[in-house]
Design goal:
With 250 residues, the chain is α/β, with parallel strands linked by helices. It is built from seven helices and ten strands.
Amino acid sequence: MRQINKKICNLKCTVSEPNILNKENLYLVVFCHGYGAPGNDLVSVGEYLCQNDSSISENICFIFPEGPLSLDNVGLLGARAWWEIDFSALPRPIDGIDPRDLSKDIPKGMPLASNMLMDLVNQIMLDYGVSSNRIILGGFSQGSMITTDVALKMDQPPGGLIVMSGTLVCEEVWRKLAQNKEVMKIFQSHGRSDPLLSFNAAERLKELFVEAGFDQKFFPFDGFHEIPEEVLFHTSEFIKEYSNKKIILL
């Protein structure tokens, strides 16, 4: 794999391309980092997947966009976000129970960030000459929320969606979009002891996907707000399902 730092539309990206681009088998995977992480936070995930399977390293191009907001002003030097979070306004969990239901929220700044990521997706389809079913969107935490939003809003669904430790927001909008969407293949994971985004909320998101008739796999694990090795294994298996398909050119 070769790494390239470039701007796609208005987002800085790290791009990891196969050494030889074979367009007959090429698939694009877009991974978006979570709140407070550096823009290249998930590059190591792509490297791990490539090191453990040659079909991924030979056929998958990974694109890691950097969230548009810098968090330097709140003391998190080098950290990025897709939209701001006012932690002072969030009630504190009591006895491990999160009293706040985020499902009705449309976070301020999320629509703008979603539009920026949508522009990126449309551009890479043109740049690499692939259709939407040759793209997998995915992310961790806040990054999985924005990729879910974009996947549901795309005219034609992506080839897959990976939701790592995400949660249900924009429920009314997402539910309506999901009911009118073609079948989408989804891999979702979440820690049962996640202290930041509750496991119950993740299950509600899973139920939304199931009710929409999506081809969905939900993988709970005994852990926290993280990406453990077993999640990486299932992510690899999810991506490999596409690695040998013939490409559909635009």
